[in-house]
């Protein structure tokens, strides 16, 4: 049942290209436009949405953080992403024109469920992004967009995360498409690029041996830091979460721009720091700033593990270890940059003798608050 793999997690990592393709299937029509009739919120209501609030926990929260960048860019609708467990215990401002997006692999996470109930009580519309047909969260929502990752057994979420990202991009691009923004041409181009992205995920999976080797060499360390910026920031958080839950190591993700506001004090000789580098194309200013960050931490002794696009030569002098990822549109980069971090955490956990599929103290679905 593990399809020849030692762990479900490895099987699920390997299934990601197909999971991504399946989540896109039937949702892009012949003319390259999105068809999301299954989202039963009528277009005229979606056109009136003036605020999007995303609620989720754990890994699903990280996909929601990335969604914020995509939604605000392509739709110009203000969007906030909030931990479900925080959202329901404050006094959020919601009304009929707020679209709440609840993201959950299992569809049973109590914190997320309570947040969506709270949102509906205030009159907001709730769209669920969920991987489990007929589970409680989609049943209690106004609409649902299913991710087609297939069953995810390992406690650490991998393929569900990538398909949540795809679903979030679909929602962002669809809202952009029906509302018509100045990014119309870009939206059409990105829909086409998204339809081809599973090949890029496959490509990364084919180059993971050096990542495994590196992970094994770090098994004796206590701490690993992760840095990212823009959509690479939630990816850094996700890399750190995977390492905490699987390897039981102290792992922290930071926004690279925050380094000088505190975290740089943690850098000491030999400390492994994984850095997710933005594309040198597009928002190239950010790329250059992150390269400076790598330079700064390396000068203070960090052992740098750099995840950068193919052809990005600027990082080479400062990378103790260089992990290449395919060139993708800026906002879609998390679909490829997350994969090495999953492999890294899985291999490190194995090297430390941990049970990868059933990490201590954790459950696959958290049905209590
Ligand atoms: O089923 P959900 O997506 O609602 O679960 C949310 C989190 O509990 C989940 O993502 C958790 O953080 C994973 N173990 C992360 O790998």
TrEMBL record:
> Which reaction is this enzyme known to catalyze?
D-fructose 6-phosphate + L-glutamine = D-glucosamine 6-phosphate + L-glutamate
Transmembrane regions listed in the UniProt entry: none
User: Cellular component terms, GO, for this chain's entry?
Assistant: cytosol
Q: Where in the cell is it found?
A: Cytoplasm
Q: Which GO terms describe its molecular function?
A: carbohydrate derivative binding; glutamine-fructose-6-phosphate transaminase (isomerizing) activity
Q: Which GO terms describe its biological process?
A: carbohydrate metabolic process; fructose 6-phosphate metabolic process; protein N-linked glycosylation; UDP-N-acetylglucosamine metabolic process
Domain named SIS: residues: 42-181, 214-359
According to the lineage, what is the superkingdom? Bacteria
> Which residues act catalytically here?
364 (for fru-6p isomerization activity)
EC nos: 2.6.1.16
Q: Name the keywords, alphabetized.
A: Aminotransferase, Cytoplasm, Glutamine amidotransferase, Repeat, Transferase
How does this protein assemble? Homodimer.
Primary role: Catalyzes the first step in hexosamine metabolism, converting fructose-6P into glucosamine-6P using glutamine as a nitrogen source.
Name the chain's protein.
Glutamine--fructose-6-phosphate aminotransferase [isomerizing]
Organism, by scientific name, is Streptomyces atratus
């Amino acid at each position: 049942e593990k399809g020849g793999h030692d762990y479900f997690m490895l099987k699920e990592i390997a299934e990601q290209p197909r999971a991504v393709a399946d989540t896109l299937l039937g949702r892009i029509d012949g003319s390259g436009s999105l068809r999301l009739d299954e989202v039963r919120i009528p277009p005229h209501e979606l056109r009136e949405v003036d605020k999007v609030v995303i609620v989720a926990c754990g890994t699903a929260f990280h996909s929601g953080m990335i969604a914020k960048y995509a939604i605000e860019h392509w739709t110009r609708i203000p969007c906030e992403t909030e931990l479900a467990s925080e959202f329901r215990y404050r006094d959020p401002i919601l009304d009929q024109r707020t679209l709440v997006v609840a993201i959950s692999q299992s569809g049973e996470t109590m914190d997320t469920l309570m947040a969506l109930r709270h949102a509906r009580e205030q009159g907001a519309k709730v769209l669920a992004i969920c991987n489990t047909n007929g589970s409680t969260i989609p049943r209690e929502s106004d609409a649902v967009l299913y991710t087609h990752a297939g069953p995810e057994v390992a406690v650490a979420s991998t393929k569900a995360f990538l398909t949540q990202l795809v679903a979030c991009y679909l929602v962002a691009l669809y809202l952009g498409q029906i509302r018509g923004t100045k990014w119309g041409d870009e939206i059409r181009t990105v829909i086409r690029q998204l339809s081809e992205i599973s090949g890029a995920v496959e490509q990364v999976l084919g180059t993971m041996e050096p990542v495994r080797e590196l992970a094994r060499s770090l098994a004796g360390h206590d701490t690993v830091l992760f840095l990212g910026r823009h959509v690479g920031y939630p990816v850094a958080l996700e890399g750190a979460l995977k390492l905490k839950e699987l390897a039981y190591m102290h792992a922290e993700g930071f926004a690279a721009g925050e380094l000088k506001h505190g975290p740089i004090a943690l850098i000491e000789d030999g400390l492994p720091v994984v850095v997710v580098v933005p594309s040198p194309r597009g928002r190239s200013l950010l790329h250059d700033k992150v390269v400076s960050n790598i330079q700064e931490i390396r000068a203070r002794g960090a052992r740098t593990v750099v995840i950068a696009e193919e052809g990005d030569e600027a990082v080479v002098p400062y990378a103790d270890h260089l992990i290449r990822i395919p060139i993708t549109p800026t906002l879609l980069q998390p679909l490829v940059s997350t994969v090495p971090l999953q492999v890294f955490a899985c291999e490190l956990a194995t090297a430390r003798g941990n049970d990868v599929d059933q990490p201590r103290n954790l459950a696959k679905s958290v049905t209590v608050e």
